Amino acid sequence: MGAFSTEFKPFQSDFLTSDTLAQYSPNYILFCPGKITVGNPCGERGVCIWNGVTSSYTCRYLVEFRGNNCETYDANLCARTVGMEDGRVENGDITASRSSNYPSYRARLHNSYGWEIYSANIYDWLQMDLKKNTTVVAVASQGSAGGSYYVRSYKIAYGFAPNALQIIKDSNGEDLIFQGNSNHNTVVRNNFPSPVTARYFRILLQSWNGNYGGLRLEYYSCYP
User: Fold this and answer.
1) What's the whole-number mean pLDDT along residues 132-144?
2) Could you give the domains of the chain?
3) Which of 34-43, 118-127, 172-181 has the lowest mean pLDDT?
4) Pairwise CA distance, residues 223 & 203, whole Å
């Protein structure tokens, strides 16, 4: 049999970052697309790559899934930041409904101070523009280091345009309310129920400490 390679791509190939080698009988090539597409021995979240020279195939999986067939989603496996803390997200790409002492671009995790607003309300928001569609799996928050200003709970909206956002839902199809901070300094990470691909991510305030809201943020991805 001549050498060839075929790939089954349930996800964009750029998302694949780790390999698990499994060797089977050459008959299993029947499960690899390019021959007879009756299934995928790597599971629905895997990519089957057949090697005709070694008569074996490689299963490649998304890093935020684990288990024999990549059946379990685990966002804790993802620690790649999108660039809030280190400045890859530029100041002009961090916007807000309004600001008080400190503007929206101060809302970077571990930054001195942070985004602050007085007389916070549920119409206040903080938005990040990643400039390109990005798959995000988690968010981490702090309050503002300038005082006891922090957000106790929030929703997250996302989308490909700022005027067409949708809110992350829970398993019942209701708006998911993330539990935020109980002080201004401790980092609290919240994983999304499933990966979300968007350009814009917007924090929608739901509750806060007293009359003041304060935020410092980072988002996490599994992907370059």
Assistant:
1) 93
2) 13-73 (no CATH), 80-221 (2.60.120.260)
3) 34-43
4) 22
Find the mean pLDDT for residues 135-154.
92
8 Å CB contact between 179 and 189: no
Distance set, CA 179 to CA 16, 175, 187, 201 (Å): 31, 13, 12, 17
Which residues, listed in sequence order, are joined to residue 43 by a DSSP beta bridge? none
pTM here is 0.71
CA 60/CA 171 separation, integer angstroms: 28
How would residue 200 be classed by pLDDT, with cut points 50, 70 and 90? very high
Amino acid present at 41: P
Rounded CA-CA distance 25/145 in Å is 60
Bin 87: left if φ > 0, else alpha if -120 < ψ < 50, else beta: left
| Residue 130, both tokens | 């990643």
Q: Rounded to an integer, what distance in angstroms lies between the CA atom of residue 99 and that of residue 138?
A: 25
Lowest mean pLDDT among 14-28, 104-118, 164-178: 14-28
The residue type of 9 is K
For 192-220, the DSSP string reads EEEEEEEEEEEEEEEEEBTTEEEEEEEEE
Task: Tell me the pairing of strands 151-159 and 125-142.
Answer: unpaired
The kind and range of the H/E element at 190 are strand 188-208
145 contacts 188 by C-beta, under 8 angstroms: no
Say yes or no to pLDDT of 125 above 70.
yes
